[in-house]
Amino acid sequence: METGKLTRRQWLAAALAAGMPVARADGELERQVKAAFLYRFGGFVEWPAHAFVRADSPLVIGLHGADELAAPLERTVTGRTINGRALQVVKLKKDYAVGGERAPHIAFVGARDRTAAQGMLDGCRERPVLTVSDSDHVHGMGSVINFLLADQRVRFEVSLKAAASAQLRISARLLSVAYRVQDGMQEQVRPGAAS
Superkingdom of this entry's organism (predicted)? Predict the structure, then answer.
C-alpha cells in the first residue's frame, strides 16, 4: 500500500471520527456511516445476561424495513466481534415476532411502513433490544437511538427512558457524543455535539 493513500475503510473511519458531512454525499456513503454506527453502538451498550440464549450466542443485528443497509453492514461486521461475541446480521420480515435464538440485540427499524415499524417496536418493548431508527416519527414511537442529520452530518439522539424500558445500560462515553439525550422529562442538546 502506498504511503499517504487511505483505503476506503480507513477513509470512512476518519470521516466518522471527524463528523464527515454526508447530507450532500451519495446515499451509499450515508448507508456506510449508519452501518458503522450500528456496529459501534454494540460496544457501548450492556445487555442483561438473559438477552443471550447461551454464553457463546452471537450478537444479532436485525434490519427491519431497511434491506439497503444489509450489504454495508455485512461488510462492516465481517470478521469482527463485540465483547467476544461473533456478529450476525439478519433481515427481519414485516411480520417478525421478537424472541428465540435469532432474536436481535440491535434492531434497526426503517420508517417506510409506519404500521410495520410500530409493530416491530411494540414487539421489542420491554425486551433487551437496542432499537435504532432514522425517523423522528419512529423515534417518537419508542426507539432507543435515532439517527438525524444536523449540520449536514449524521448524528444520533438517545432516549434514556426507552433504554431503561429495554433493560439496557448505555455507556456514558456513548452518551457524551450523542447530539441529543432525552431522559424522559427533558432533553439536552450537547453543545460540542453540533460542531
Answer: Bacteria
